[in-house]
Design goal:
The protein is of the alpha+beta class. The chain is about 50% helix and about 5% strand. The structure holds glutathione. The site of glutathione has 13 residues, from helix 3.
Length: about 220
């Protein structure tokens, strides 16, 4: 059976959201990041990214990972695109132009949005947003987000979704990167079309389901 490895508080949310959109059955193995555990090697530690049995699946020790029959995929964006192609119907690119756009939005998310967004999320997660150090990180990362956000904002003028006048896998993978910064009040204020698009993504029942499960998982 199709298996997704990865706790809900990880990039596993990307393929899982896609699978919820498509009502695709799968086995979920909620492998937790080893750094979230006090002692990942303890005999009673939960299945984690440093567990020998998980390293047999992904020697890189990262989640998500996917097994579909004999096919192992790592990298959340590759997994999500594969699943869109296999199960997604119109969620997948329809032609070569959409293929190019889909890859473009995924790479923009991975290379320009994800890291600054995660840094902002971490500052908030550690309760450091009010400290001078935290504020400096947030200010710098907010500046880094301005250029990719400007690109998304311009593209979304007069559009509800990133490509093809329909919700697609591109919206899933990019919005999952864009949301990392959402703990920062006002972060999207300069980008109203981006903010409205993110709200549309977050109104999807499959995202709401994924998010509830993600929030139910202990930090
Ligand atoms: N580029 C990879 C990044 C994977 C990654 O960093 N996963 C994190 C959780 S979101 C992880 O497994 N960390 C465990 C560790 O660093 O030990 C992807 O998109 O799948």
């Amino acid at each position: 059976m199709l298996t997704i490895y990865g706790a809900m508080r990880s990039r596993a949310t990307r393929p899982i959201w896609l699978l919820y959109e498509t009502n695709t059955p799968f086995q979920h193995v909620p492998v937790i990041q080893s750094y979230r555990l006090p002692d990942a090697a303890a005999p009673d530690a939960p299945f984690n990214t440093a567990s020998p049995d998980f390293l047999k699946v992904n020697p890189q020790g990262l989640v998500p990972a996917m097994l579909d029959g004999d096919l192992l995929l790592t990298e959340s964006l590759a997994i999500t695109y594969y699943l869109a192609r296999k199960f997604g119907g119109d969620l997948a690119p329809r032609d070569l132009a959409e293929e190019g756009q889909a890859v473009q939005w995924a790479l923009l998310g991975a290379t320009s949005v994800e890291t600054p967004g995660l840094d902002i999320a971490q500052v908030h997660g550690k309760g450091q947003a009010g400290t001078p150090e935290g504020q400096a990180i947030i200010a710098e990362r907010t500046r880094a987000l301005a250029r990719p956000f400007a690109r998304i904002e311009a593209h979304l003028q007069g559009r509800d979704w990133l490509m093809g006048d329909r919700f697609t896998v591109a919206d899933i993978v990019l919005s999952e990167c864009v949301r990392y910064a959402m703990a920062q009040p006002g972060i999207y204020d300069a980008w109203p079309a981006l903010a409205a698009w993110l709200a549309r993504c977050h109104a999807r029942p499959a995202w709401v389901r994924m998010w509830a499960e993600r929030n139910a998982e202990p930090v």
